[in-house]
Amino acid sequence: MTKDAAILYVEDNISSRILVRRILEAEGYTVIEAGDAKQAFAILEEASPSLILMDINIPDIDGYTLTTQLKNLPKLKNVPIIALTANVMKGDRERTLDAGCDGYIQKPIDVDSLPKQIAQYLREAKS
Q1: Which residue has the higher pLDDT, 86 or 62?
Q2: What is the CATH number of the domain that holds 19?
Q3: pTM of the entire structure?
Q4: Count of structural domains within the chain
Q5: Which is nearest to 125 in space by CA: 92, 73, 82?
Q6: Which of 6, 29, 73, 80 falls between 20 and 30 A from 119, CA-CA?
Q7: Do residues 8 and 44 lie in contact, with contact meaning Cβ atoms separated by under 8 Å?
């Protein structure tokens, strides 16, 4: 799998964005960051990411709603959206999948397994 894939990470917490960017850039991925839904839509006017990482607890529009909106855009129809969230209570995983997320990674982030998980989601999207 090509590691030059662009990944959009929608996350309002700067520390989380820095951590994920460092992990994924070290693996050769390009990481584009958005702090909220408005920034994500602005970025998507120009960029075509291979994968989107979605925090669920973002300001204004939550990650569930944003995921549903993004999945309705023709250019993102086949782009995997992966929830990257601290929402780990019973039913949270199902709720993210019901909203249209293609996968679920819980926080705190496992720095060793995150690149493998991303690579797997990208492989599945290509097949």
Answers
A1: 62
A2: 3.40.50.2300
A3: 0.94
A4: 1
A5: 82
A6: 73
A7: yes
Task: Compute the half-sphere exposure of residue 13: CA atoms within 13 Å on the CB side of its CA.
Answer: 13
Q: CA angle, corner 38, sides to 72 and 61, nearest 5?
A: 70
Instruction: Return the structure tokens found at 57.
Output: 């607890």
Q: How far apart are CA 111 and CA 60, in angstroms?
A: 29
CA angle 126, 22, 68 (to 5 degrees): 45
Q: What is the Cα–Cα distance from 31 to 34, expressed in whole angstroms?
A: 10
Looking at the domain assignment, is residue 19 inside a domain? yes
Computed over every residue of the chain, the mean pLDDT equals: 93
Residue 47 lies in a domain: yes
Domain assignment present for residue 35? The answer is yes
Structure tokens at 75: 């250019």
Q: What is the pLDDT of residues 66-84, one digit of tens each?
A: 999 999 999 998 999 999 9
- Selection from 46, 50, 48, 14 nearest residue 33 by Cα: 14
Q: Which domain holds residue 79?
A: 6-126
The span from the CA of 43 to the CA of 41, in Å, is 5
Could you tell me the pLDDT band of residue 3, with boundaries at 50, 70 and 90? low
Give 9's strand partners: 33, 53
